[in-house]
Automatic annotation (TrEMBL):
InterPro entries: Cro/C1-type_HTH, Lambda_DNA-bd_dom_sf. This is Helix-turn-helix transcriptional regulator. Residues 31-60 form the HTH cro/C1-type domain. It comes from the Bacteria. It comes from Phocaeicola intestinalis. Signal peptide: none annotated. CDD domains: HTH_XRE. Residues 78-105 form a coiled coil. Keywords: Coiled coil. PROSITE patterns: HTH_CROC1.
Length: 122
């Protein structure tokens, strides 16, 4: 949510007078500053304010709810990931065993066909 009071804080922290900011924005009346601080300034105007202070626009906004990291990116699920990785590794081992068995069966079939074929040619 927009917090225009941050503009006032920045003015105090940087020891800048209101009129300097208003001059940069191309306006002179203190009521204009009040509108920016207490109202909902346009994005264009807020961008100019951010440029004046050398900050990004998100400085003027506060989250209503605290940021909470997406659970799947946090360490809480590390054990689940380890278990899934172990399962995938076991599945890969099983796949490799099946491939080896199929290759052996294929060799046996091919060697049997060769014997049969060599016996017929004589």
């Amino acid at each position: 949510m927009y917090n225009g009071q941050i503009i006032k804080q920045l003015l105090v922290e940087k020891n800048i007078q209101n009129k300097e900011l208003l001059s940069y924005l191309g306006t002179e009346a203190n009521s204009s500053l009040s509108q920016i601080v207490n109202g909902n300034p346009t994005v264009k105007r807020l961008e100019k304010v951010a440029d004046f202070f050398g900050v990004s626009m998100d400085v003027f906004f506060e989250r209503e709810k605290p940021f909470k990291a997406y659970p799947s990116t946090h360490g809480d699920n590390e054990q689940q990931y380890k278990e899934k990785i172990a399962l995938l590794e076991r599945l890969l081992e099983e796949k490799d065993k099946r491939i080896l068995l199929l290759e052996q069966m294929n060799q046996l079939i091919n060697s049997g066909e060769n014997r049969t074929n060599s016996g017929q040619t004589k």
